[in-house]
Amino acid sequence: MDLRLSDRELAFRDRLRAWLADVLPTLPPPPDRDDWPARRRYDTAWQRLLFEAGYAGVDWPAEHGGLGASPTEQLIFLEETARARAPYVGANFVGLLHAGPTLIVEGTDEQRARHLPRILRGEEVWCQGFSEPDAGSDLASLRTGAVRDGDHYVVNGRKVWTSHAEVADYCELLVRTDPGAPRHQGITWLILPMDTPGVQVRPLRTVVGSSEFSELVLDDVRVPVANRVGAENDGWRVAMVTFSFERGTAFIGDVIESRNILAELAAVARATPGRDGGTLWDDAALRRDAGRLAAEVTGLWALIQKNVSEASAGMIPVQGASVFKLRFTENRQRIADLAAHVLGRAALAMGDPAGGRVVEDRVNTLSFTIAAGTSQIQKNILAERALGLPKEPRWT
Amino acid sequence: MDLTMSADQRDLRAGLRDYLQGTWTPDRLRAAAETPALDRGDWSGLAGLGVFGLTVPEAAGGMGLGLVDAAIVFEELGRALVPGPLVATFLAAGPVPGADDGGAVVTSLDLRDPVLVAEHLDSATHVVAVGDDGLHLWPAEALVAEPAPAPLDPLTPVSRVKTPPVAGERIGSAADAAGWRLRGAVLTSALQVGVAQGALDLAVRYAGERTQFGRVIGSFQAVKHLLADSLVRVDLARAAVWAAALTVDDPEAGDPGEAASAAKVLADDAASQGGRCCVQVHGGMGFTWEVLAHLYLKRAWLQETCFGQADEHARHLAEAL
């Protein structure tokens, strides 16, 4: 075991650092969070810059236009871009982290040729149509139906929590093609062009106050059979392939951000007078709480290094991914709580320069323990798959 | 960068695990809880496996391995609830003759502690006192201390030190004392990870056997989530302990003090919460002397007090923010 980077990895890191130092000062200021067209332009322009510099699709295989980087190089990429506060993957998330990798594994040559280069160049934005109003944690109960009509499927139903739907070009869509089959065996994975007649996007306002995602209403939407990924009724397996890309790396940059917020919290506490003289930072209980959270952040980074090492060794760190997600999300929420306590009544307005970012983070991170598998589902996964406890009685 | 065990490390762990399973059976642990004096045969057995001389250079008769190998070994010792002043004897291998080969049983005192309590004093041959100015060595019989009639951890006799001796043989500098504390924190954390894992294994086994309401209790989410929480804590702590051990051996990889403090905070939490979980999952049986659950929790509580308590390490980490 060792924690050192190889010469090759160090060279990769140094090249990336130099490039980030050159390019980041040239970026325009980030757009307003409610201006979706501007956000798409900003995020895809960043993706184009990555593409031109050879950093698009870091984890994608080289034969599909990606960088084909090793797991450790992927970690370096995520760590360095987060440290340099480079733009987040944003509107490119589903294309780069879900749909693209799924097409690489499961798509036809035509589907790959049509979509992969455009995703890498930042010319194509994707969204996800998996969850439904009545199919959340129990995704396999989804009811959006697709009926074959010649060389098309006719789709009717509703999807929710669809991020970037207003500005997306395509949607990765799960539909039920065989209502009579056992639940997991009647599902199909489709590529839905968002400009198809009958697709209606209804933005949902989140607790942050902005519209981070939407509801999709699908009314007699005709999707070509050629847009099917994998076989008809084999979509559940394809979706599991999609999910396998989601768990593990999605939050790596956020751990860096957790450390940053802790450091800001300490800086604010050191500069804020206490009621009994001195500063807030003189409070040993505050320092103890901040230190415990810092220990967790350090442990989370070690866990990332362990997960990445396992991936490098050809293992799939399923247990490590669930452990990481559970602990990272809870830790971040507690960091935001502690930061808000330090700010006190300065934490009553979002966007306020004093602490508005933290206030917004405190609200926004409520989603962390819900999205991509709730904490309770993650605990079921660990108990059943890692500890070997009997399955919860379920529909099959 | 590689945070997975090598084939050699897996072999090291498997060999030790086999030996400990044969030696520290549940019945043996129950017996030792009644008569906790150390058996010198056991001590020599551990020394024979190389436990105390793991990081002693090969030229000096040790195995020349790294602190992370020692962390793997100490996790197993913790998991098996092996009694004895394991960390102090390990750290004394080198400066104290006989520590590496089982000839000496070395216990230690940290003079910073406001209350001085020595573990296993009656079985010990030597005491190392860790002061800010350096390391001092006394023969065990030089220490005036009063044994506690009912130690919290039944396998770990403790004696309250009345008056610390004034002088001993100086065997290390202030820097050596700092290194002793640093490595001791990492190894104690490794023991805690082992205690947490052992408690989790016991609780999972029981949850898979015990039936109530017509189902094994491990099929209820309320029980599953308790156990999953323990698993999360132990996995996080183990990664932190490995990273800390590697950082102590290779300070270019990070700040050894911060890495060790993070490991102790997380490992103490994993062990004490894991021990509680084990008692809770056993229900009423978990409150009996017969079931081993309490031994894990009590060992966790004991080790929380060794090499800096979690709050102290947490405040140390806060200073770096």
From TrEMBL, chain A:
Pfam families: Acyl-CoA_dh_1, Acyl-CoA_dh_M, Acyl-CoA_dh_N. The keyword Signal does not apply. The keyword rRNA processing does not apply. InterPro entries: Acyl-CoA_Oxase/DH_mid-dom (IPR006091), Acyl-CoA_Oxase/DH_mid-dom_sf (IPR046373), AcylCo_DH-like_C (IPR036250), AcylCo_DH/oxidase_C (IPR009075), AcylCoA_DH/ox_N (IPR013786), AcylCoA_DH/ox_N_sf (IPR037069), AcylCoA_DH/oxidase_NM_dom_sf (IPR009100), Mycobact_Acyl-CoA_DH (IPR052161). It comes from the Bacteria. GO terms for molecular function: flavin adenine dinucleotide binding; oxidoreductase activity, acting on the CH-CH group of donors. Keywords: FAD, Flavoprotein, Oxidoreductase. Its cofactor is FAD. Signal peptide: none annotated. Residues 233-386 form the Acyl-CoA dehydrogenase/oxidase C-terminal domain. This is Acyl-CoA dehydrogenase, N-terminal domain. It comes from Thermomonospora echinospora.
Automatic annotation (TrEMBL), chain B:
Belongs to the acyl-CoA dehydrogenase family. Residues 7-84 form the Acyl-CoA dehydrogenase/oxidase N-terminal domain. SUPFAM superfamilies: Acyl-CoA dehydrogenase C-terminal domain-like, Acyl-CoA dehydrogenase NM domain-like. The keyword Protein transport does not apply. Pfam families: Acyl-CoA_dh_1 (PF00441), Acyl-CoA_dh_N (PF02771). This is Acyl-CoA dehydrogenase, N-terminal domain. It comes from the Bacteria. InterPro entries: AcylCo_DH-like_C (IPR036250), AcylCo_DH/oxidase_C (IPR009075), AcylCoA_DH/ox_N (IPR013786), AcylCoA_DH/ox_N_sf (IPR037069), AcylCoA_DH/oxidase_NM_dom_sf (IPR009100). Residues 186-320 form the Acyl-CoA dehydrogenase/oxidase C-terminal domain. Its cofactor is FAD. One of its GO terms (molecular function) is acyl-CoA dehydrogenase activity. Keywords: FAD, Flavoprotein, Oxidoreductase. It comes from Thermomonospora echinospora. PANTHER family: ACYL-COA DEHYDROGENASE, ACYL-COA DEHYDROGENASE FADE28.
